[in-house]
Specification:
7 strands; Thiol Ester Dehydrase, Chain A; two-stranded antiparallel ribbon; 167 residues
Length: 167
């Protein structure tokens, strides 16, 4: 999304205002992300998750998967990050995540994509210039396998009331 600020000047805009969300709309987030072995090991070490399924190829080779799994915290972070440009770029606050489901393994080398469906939109009862948007986000691998889903709610400003509007 861009905003024209002069006849030949345009400014990128991140996210949507409350007014822009429509229940039932689906946002296909772009681009996808190929998760590398280095991503997996660095994230696992950074978060102090030393489970050998994420960082020990010899150990993982003996598992039912035969190879390392991507840390599910990393897949959640990547999928959530993919949604920011469409869903929460203008958010005042994330209000919570529910129904986080991990439905298939993700391996280093997999390319992942995400999409979000608007489930609910309502004006805030206590903040007249803001509202709450709830979306269901689904993570899919390049082959179409759904590996994750979650529901998230965020506090979103109405048009003219966001931090970006004050710049």
């Amino acid at each position: 999304m861009t905003k024209t600020i002069a006849p030949t000047r345009h400014r990128a805009s991140l996210g949507r205002y409350l007014d822009d969300f429509v229940v039932g709309d689906v946002y296909e987030h772009f681009p996808g992300r190929t998760i590398t072995d280095a991503d997996n090991i660095q994230f696992s070490l950074l978060t102090m998750n030393n489970h050998p399924m994420h960082c020990d190829h010899a150990f993982a080779a003996k598992s039912e998967f035969g190879k390392p799994l991507v840390n599910s915290g990393l897949t959640l972070a990547i999928v959530l990050g993919m949604t920011v440009a469409d869903v929460s770029g203008k958010a005042i606050a994330n209000l919570g995540w529910t129904e986080i489901k991990l439905t298939a393994p993700v391996f280093p080398g997999d390319t992942v994509y995400a999409e979000s469906e608007v489930l609910e939109k309502r004006e805030s009862k206590s903040r007249p210039t803001q509202g709450i948007v709830t979306v269901r986000t689904t993570g899919k691998k390049a082959d179409g396998t759904v590996f994750m889903s979650f529901i998230r709610s965020a506090l979103i400003p109405k048009r003219g009331h966001g931090v970006q509007d004050k710049a």
